[in-house]
Every structure is written in C-alpha cells, then in structure tokens.
TrEMBL record:
Protein name: Fatty acid hydroxylase domain-containing protein
GO MF terms, alphabetically ordered: glyceryl-ether monooxygenase activity; iron ion binding
CC terms in the record's Gene Ontology section: endomembrane system; membrane
Subcellular location: Endomembrane system
Subcellular location, principal: membrane
Membrane topology per record: Multi-pass membrane protein
Length: 376
C-alpha cells in the first residue's frame, strides 16, 4: 500500500475540513444560528488530532493485519476489474461500522471509549473530528470478515475513507439533503447524538440507513420531541485528552463501590449506565462556559493549537524521514499540549505553569529534531 494509506492522509484533508467548517459557519449565520462554541470546538479538534497521532503507530499494525488476512485467509479471489469487491467494500464496510458502533453503545467499557464522540452539546462538522483515541483496539474485529471475502486492501481503504468523509458531512445543522430512504442525513444522525429517551441507541449507520431499518434501530425525529444534544453525564471538560478518560474514571469509581466481584465485572460489561444496587455514578460539575473563559486565554489557546497542529502535520507528512523515537517523542509532546491547552480552557489550577513547561519541552524537542536531521 502507498505511503498515504495510513492516518497520514489526514494531513492533506486539514485545509479542506477547515473550508467546510467555514462554509458551515457562514450558512449558519445567514440563517441566524450559532452552531459553534470556541472551547467545545477546540476540544473536538484536540480529540481528533490525538487520534490521528496515535494512528501513526496503531495504523500500520492494523493495515498489516488486513494485508495478512487478505493474503493468507481470503476465501475467494475476484477477477481483476470486477465490481464485486467494490460493492462488498462499501456494503460490508458500512455494516461493520454499524455493529462496531452499536457495540460501543451496548457495553459499558466500550461506551467509555466511544462516548467521547458524544460529549459535545453542539452538532456541527467539528464534532465529527471528536474521535475516541482507542476505538481501533476493538473496531478492527468488526471488519475482520472483509479481507476473507476477497476485498483487496486498496478497495477497503478507499471505501472506508469515503464512508468516513460522508459521516463527517452528516454532523451538521445546515447541510440538509434528502436521504432517498437509504442514506444517512444530518436530519437522521442528529437523533443519534441526542439524549432523549426515544432516541437512545438509534441510527448507528455511517452512510446507509439500511442496517438500522433491517435491525430495528432506525427512528425519525418527532417534532413534538426535539433532540436534546449530549449525554446524560453532561459535558465535563474542554480538554480533548482528559475527555478520553472521564467515563473510565466513573466506571472505576462505581466498580470500587460494588460489594461483589461479579458486580465489579458487570459494571464494565453491562449496558452503559448500569450500576449495582445502592451505587450511583459520581456527579461532576460541567465545563465552564465560553463566556467565562478570558479572551486572552482563548487567543492563546487558538495560537497554541495552531502551532501544535503545524508540528503534528510535519510529523505526519514527513513521518518516513523521522526515526521511531522522534515520532514517539513528537506524538507525546503533541498529546501533552492538547491536555495543557484544555487545562487552560477549563481553568484548572496550575494549568499555565504546566503549559509553560510543555512549550519549553516542545521547543527543545524541535531543536533536537532539526539538529539530528541536519547532522545525519
């Protein structure tokens, strides 16, 4: 597979994503809507950037597993030029996503990973970038049959990339379009991001509504019950790194209070929200609103994120030129920066000091990489 066939291809997509977001904001303003919040958006971008950086290391492993399964375990080989593997790639890619996605809403430990994507109480294109960092650790299981059915790696990669981009466009309150019965649209996907009881665990498909209709999880918006965005646990932090942990933190707190080993285990494997008798999930204060964040903090966070993004894109685009230690060190300081910037937005004690240390460490690493590259 070519060098772009890892998470590095996101480096090419960043300008396009920003253009789509700018268009969404412009259209929303024309309609008198405000669909973005500053800190929430930066938190979503941070979550997405972290997932991409981790993909530098996990991505090649998953691609290698796919190649191995296709080369050694494929049950059929389709003739060159056949349209069948393309149809299978799109249909089974979306079906695999449906069951992976549904599992993430059915098992508490998997929800603790996937729930990051649902924390935002906004619904816009930036929310589509709010990725869980560790979902690939189990998502690949739901795609395992695809290489065994003779779908070549390139076909699968192209199909999943298109499905992922399509899923990006359904996170919007302004990009309306008809679904023609079989396509997911923003009007159907907003249901999935709602915490209303009638909408819970519905509309899991990424591109096609066929699977939801077939397996009984499709629902349309009821005008009498408008969607209320977010999760029952609330939006707790602007820190895209800390957000990856908060649901696990609460599961562990519940498990510690459970009186039997069986209840401790069930806390992680039952449906999200289940607790043993007499035990409740801890409650946490919501993240501070945008209006409470000083302007200087917002300006600094925006500039710092821009610099961090540029550094991350450098690692992604030129990853073949860097030894593994440089990639690992670079990814570490980027993830560190995402957390310290989130700490500034949250107003955590000591956040400014930790951000100063992080900036100094990043600068030192950057100089070391430049010196190492020039010396070699």
């Amino acid at each position: 597979m070519s060098r772009l066939e890892t998470n590095g291809y996101y480096a090419l997509g960043v300008p396009f994503y920003l253009a789509v977001i700018a268009l969404e904001i412009a259209l929303a303003r024309r309609k008198g809507k405000r669909v973005y919040g500053f800190a929430d958006t930066l938190s979503s971008f941070s979550a997405g950037l972290g997932e991409i950086l981790l993909g530098l290391f996990l991505g090649p492993l998953l691609l290698g597993l796919y190649d191995f399964a296709y080369d050694r375990l494929a049950l059929v080989r389709w003739p060159e030029g056949s349209i069948v593997p393309w149809i299978l790639a799109f249909a089974l890619g979306d079906l695999g996503y449906y069951w992976y996605h549904r599992a993430g809403h059915s098992v508490a430990a998997l929800w603790a990973i996937h729930g990051v994507h649902h924390q935002s109480e906004h619904f816009n294109v930036s929310v589509a970038t709010r990725h869980p960092w560790f979902s690939d650790t189990y998502a690949f299981l739901f795609y395992a049959p695809i290489p065994m059915l003779g779908v070549p790696p390139v076909h699968f990669f192209v199909a999943i990339s298109i499905i992922s981009f399509y899923a990006l466009t359904v996170h919007s309150q302004v990009f309306h379009r008809p679904g023609l019965w079989f396509l997911v649209t923003p009007a159907t996907h907003i249901v999935h991001h709602s915490r209303n009881r009638r909408y819970l665990n519905k509309n899991f498909g990424a591109m096609f509504t066929v699977w939801d209709r077939l397996f009984g999880t499709h629902v349309e918006v009821d005008p009498a019950d408008p969607p209320v965005l977010g999760t029952p646990f609330g939006y707790q932090t602007h820190d895209g790194a800390r957000a990856q942990w908060v649901f696990f933190r609460d599961l562990i707190a519940v498990a510690r209070q459970a009186k039997t080993l069986g209840d401790k285990v069930r806390t992680f494997v039952r449906h999200p929200g289940w607790t043993p008798e007499g035990v409740a999930f801890p409650r946490h204060a919501p993240a501070r609103p945008d209006a409470a964040i000083p302007l200087r903090t917002k300006v600094y966070a925006a500039l710092a994120f821009g610099g961090t993004l540029a550094f991350a894109l450098h690692l992604l685009w030129l990853r073949d030129r860097h030894p593994v230690w440089q990639l690992a060190a670079g990814a570490l300081v980027v993830l560190w920066g995402l957390s310290t910037m989130g700490g500034l937005l949250d107003g955590r004690d000591g956040a400014a000091r930790r951000e100063g240390v992080r900036v100094a460490a990043t600068a030192a690493l950057g100089l070391w990489i430049v010196f190492s590259s020039s010396a070699s």
